[in-house]
Fold this protein.
Amino acid sequence: MTKKNLDILVGFIFFAFAGLLFIAAGFMPTREGGIPALNTGFYPRLLAIILAVLSVLMVLEAVRKQADSGQVEVWWTTKAAMFMFAFTIVLLVLYPFVMKTFGFATASLLFITSLTWMLSDKNNRKPVSIIIVSVGLTALLYIIFKMILAIPFPHGMLI
Amino acid sequence: MELFSMNLYLSGLSHFANPFMFLSSFLGVLIGIIFGALPGLTATMTIAVFIPFTFGMSPYISFAFLLGLYSGAVYGGSISAILINIPGTPSAIATSLDGYPMSKAGRAGEAIGISTISSTIGGFLSVFVLMFAAPAIASVALKFSAEEYVGITLIGLSVIAIISPGSTIKGLIAGVIGLIIGIVGLDPITGFPRFIFGHAELLEGIDSIPVMIGMYGLSEMLVQISSAEYKVTVEQKLTKIVPPWKDIKRIFGTVIRSSFIGVLIGALPAAGGSIASLVAYGQEKRLGKNRDLLGTGIIEGIAAPEAANNASTGGALIPMLTLGIPGDAMTAVLMGGLIIQGLRPGPLLFQQQMPFVSSIFISLLLSVVFMCILGLLGARLYAKLISFPKKFLIPAILVFGLVGSYAISNSLFDIWVLIVSGIIGFVFRKIGLPIAPIILGMILGPLFESNFRRALMLSEGNWATFVQRPISLAFIIIVILVLAGPTLLKSFKKTFIHSKGV
C-alpha cells in the first residue's frame, strides 16, 4: 500500500469513529432548551464534529499528494520479528494474571527471563548471564517497589 | 506590598545550618535524575511515590528533598530522550527531536553536556524570577477566567500539532483524539458517567500515566521488537560531556530566550514543562539562527527545550505557591506534599510562613547547583543504566512499565490501560500519527472542558465571550497565527520573491 492510500484509509476510519462518537453522545441525557453547553453530550459532540472535519481535511490532503508518495513502512521486518511481536503481546497480557495468582516478583521474573531468552541470539544464548540479569532486575524491582515504596501488590501464592 | 521585604529571601537561611538540608537536597536530585532518566518513570510519578517518605520529616527538609526530586527528574528525562529516543518525562519530548539524532551520530556525551548546562542556566533564571516576580505574575494570572484557560489550552495543542513530525492536520487529529480520551469519566458539570463501559475504575477518567508509559515506553519497545532492532546493540561512548566555551556561547541566546519562555509558560496555570519545552522548541524553529537544521541533531535543539523545561520548574511554582493553582501535574503532586505537612498554599503562606517560603527558594537554588554537578559528573553512570544490551533493556523497561503502572493507584486495571495504549501507540506510529499531541490533549482535556463549558454557561451560550475579553482574544489570535503562520509566511515569501524576480 502507498502512503497516500494509507492516509486516505486512516482518514475514513477517523471519520467513521467521529460518526460513532457523535451518535453515542446523542444517547447522553439532554435537556430541551437552556444552554447547550450544560448538556452531557455537548462536548463529545463538539469534539466529534471537529474530528470529522479534520479527517475530511486529512483525506483531501492525501488525495492532493503526488501518487509516488512511496510505499508504507512495513509493520514487521521479518517473520521472526512478527513472531517476537506476538510473543511479547502474549507475555504482556499474561502478566496481570500471573501477578494476581503467583505474586508480582514471580510474574516479573518469569516475564524478564522468557523475553530475554527469546530476544537473545539463538547461537549466542548465555543461560547463566540471562538468569543473573533476570534475578538481579527482579530483586531491584522488589527492593524499589515492595521494600522502599511498600506498594500493596496482590497476595499471590508465591512472592 | 510587604511581601517584597528582604525577609522573604533571608529568613529561611538559618535552616540551612542543618546539614540534613544539603543531604536531603543532594539525595533528592540524585534519585530524581536516575528515576527521570529511566523510561516509564515520570517526574510526576517519582515525586508521587516519594511523598510518603517525607511524612515524618520537617517541612523544610521534606521540601528540600521533593524540590531536588523535581529538578532532578525534569532534567533526568532528557538523558533517555537523548540516548534512546524515549523521553524519560513528558517535558523532555522536544529534547528527543534533536537529542536522539545527535546520539545516533555518536555525540551523546556532547548532547547530555549541553542539556546539563542549559538546564542549569534555565533553572537558575527561573529561581530568580520566582523570587522577584512571583507577586507580579500572580496578580496577572489572578485576572484569568475560564475564557483565558481555554485560550492557553488551544495554544498548547496547536503548537504541539505544528512541531510534531508529519502534517499539521495529523497533529491536530492526534490532539483531538487526546481530548476525546479525556472525555471518559464523570461529566465535570452534570456528573453523568461517560464511556465507562461498566468499569468503576474509569469514573475518574483514564489515568494519564499508564497511557503515557504505554504510548511512549511500551509502543517504542514494540516498534523495536517488530523491526528486530534489538539485535543491534547501540553502545554509546560518552565523551566530551563538559561543553566547550564556544558551544556555550553559541547557545547562550537560545538558552536565555527559552528560559524566559519556560518561566512564563510555567507560571500559567495548567501549562507546565511539557508545553514550555515545546513552545521554546517551536520558537527556536521560527527564530533560531540554525532553524533549518533543527531536527537533524544540533545543540540548539537540545538547549531550547531543556532550558525551558527547567526554567518552568520555578515558574510552575509561582501559581502553586501564590494562588494554590498548580502549574502542571508535578506541582500538583508537590502541592499534595505541602498539604500533608499542614501548609495551605496561597497568598497567606507568604505572610504566615515566610521562613518556609524563603527556604523553598533557597532549596530550589541548591537543587540546581547539585543538578549541574551530578549531571556533569554522573552522566556515564546514568547512561550505563539505560544503555545495557537491548535484549535486557526491552524486558526491563516493559516490566518497569507494568509494575509502575500498577503502583500509581494499586490497580490491575491500569496495567490493561498500559497494554492497550501501548498497542494503540504502536499502530499510530506505524500510520504516521504523532503521539505527543494525544498525551497533551489527554492531560489538558478535563480542565479544558470544564473551563470551556463554564465560560459558555456564564455567557449564557454566547460564543462571542471568547473574543470579547482582550486577553482571551489575544490568545485566540496567537492560536490562529500559530496554525496559519507557516502557510501565510510561505505564500508571502513566494509572492515577494516572485515580484522581485519580475
User: Anything to note?
Assistant: Chain B has one domain: 2-501.
